[in-house]
C-alpha cells in the first residue's frame, strides 16, 4: 500500500443488496478503494491473482464455497472483514485472524469502525480489534467474549468445554482440539481434559499441577513437553 494508506479492497457476497450496501459505505470512507464486487469467491480469483488486494469484505454463508472455505484456500490471503447474518460464525471468523466481524444488518458507524481497524493494522502492523487478547465463544444462544488473560484453565467435557476465569465459568460448544489450536502461547494442554494458563500456575507435582488452587492431573503423554516448556528435564 502507498504512503497515504489507501486500502485496496473487494467485496464478495451472493446477495446483491448486501454488495450495494458495502459499495455505498466504502464510497464514504476516504482510505478505502473498492476495486470490485463479486457474487462468488471463485469469480474473484483472477483479480486476486492479477492485482494487489489488501482487504476482503467477505460473506460467510454462500453457495458453491463458503467465505471461510474460500479464505482458507488462498495461499496468501488478504486481510478479511467477514460479513454475515449468522452470529454462530463469529468464533470461526476471529479464529482465522479476521480483522473484524460484521453481523448483518450493520450500520455505517459499525462499518467505519471495522475499516478503521484495518487501517490501523496496515499502518502499525498491529490490530486494534484485540483478537490476540480475547475470543468469542458460543454459549447457549449467546456469543460471549472471554479475555485470554482471565482464563485460569479449560476443562473438556463430552461435546463442550468449561472455560474457568477469574470471575465466571463459561460453558461453550467447542472441541478441545479446535480451542487448543487457537489459544496464545501462554496456554498448554496438560491432560486430555485440561488446558491451563501458565499465568495461574502455582506448583507442579509428579502427576498433577495446581492452577488457582485447583488440583489438575498431568497426563503421561503431556508431561515431557510440559516440563520442557518449564525449562526443566
What is the fold's blueprint, element by element?
Elements: E1 7-12, H1 16-27, E2 32-38, H2 45-50, E3 55-59, H3 67-73, E4 79-84, H4 90-95, E5 100-103, H5 108-124, E6 134-139, E7 142-147, E8 151-156, E9 161-165, E10 169-172, H6 176-182, E11 187-191, E12 194-197, E13 201-204, E14 208-211, E15 214-217, H7 220-229
Parallel strand pairs: 1-2, 1-3, 3-4, 4-5
Antiparallel strand pairs: 6-7, 8-9, 8-12, 9-10, 11-12, 13-14, 14-15
Walk me through what this model shows.
It contains 7 helices and 15 strands. The radius of gyration is 21 Å and the shape is elongated. A hairpin with a 2-residue loop joins strand 6 and strand 7. The protein folds into 2 domains: 118 residues, Rossmann fold (3-Layer(aba) Sandwich), CATH 3.40.50; 96 residues, OB fold (Dihydrolipoamide Acetyltransferase, E2P). The strands form 4 sheets. A 5-stranded parallel sheet has the order 2-1-3-4-5, sandwiched between helices. With 233 residues, it is α/β, with parallel strands linked by helices. It is 28% helix and 33% strand. It starts with 6 loop residues before the first strand and ends with a helix.
Amino acid at each position: 500500500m502507498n504512503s497515504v494508506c489507501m486500502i485496496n479492497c473487494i467485496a464478495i457476497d451472493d446477495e446483491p443488496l448486501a454488495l450495494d450496501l458495502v459499495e455505498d459505505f466504502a464510497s464514504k470512507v476516504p482510505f478505502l478503494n473498492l476495486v470490485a464486487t463479486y457474487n462468488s469467491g471463485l469469480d474473484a480469483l483472477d483479480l486476486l491473482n492479477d492485482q494487489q488486494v489488501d482487504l476482503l469484505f467477505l460473506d460467510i454463508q454462500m453457495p458453491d464455497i463458503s467465505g471461510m472455505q474460500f479464505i482458507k484456500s488462498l495461499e496468501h490471503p488478504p486481510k478479511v472483514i467477514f460479513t454475515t447474518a449468522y452470529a454462530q460464525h463469529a468464533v470461526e471468523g476471529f479464529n482465522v485472524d479476521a480483522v473484524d466481524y460484521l453481523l448483518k444488518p450493520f450500520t455505517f458507524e459499525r462499518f467505519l469502525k471495522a475499516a478503521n481497524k484495518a487501517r490501523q493494522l496496515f499502518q502499525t502492523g498491529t490490530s486494534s480489534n484485540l483478537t490476540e487478547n480475547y475470543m468469542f465463544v458460543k454459549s447457549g444462544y449467546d456469543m460471549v467474549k472471554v479475555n485470554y488473560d482471565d482464563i485460569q484453565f479449560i476443562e473438556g467435557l463430552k461435546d463442550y468445554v468449561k472455560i474457568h476465569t477469574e470471575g465466571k465459568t463459561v460453558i461453550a460448544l467447542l472441541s478441545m482440539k479446535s480451542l487448543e489450536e487457537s489459544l496464545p502461547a501462554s496456554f498448554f494442554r496438560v491432560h486430555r481434559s485440561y488446558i491451563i494458563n501458565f499465568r495461574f500456575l502455582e506448583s507442579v507435582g509428579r502427576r498433577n499441577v495446581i492452577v488457582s488452587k485447583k488440583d489438575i492431573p498431568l497426563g503421561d503423554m503431556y508431561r515431557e513437553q510440559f516440563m520442557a516448556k518449564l525449562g526443566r528435564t
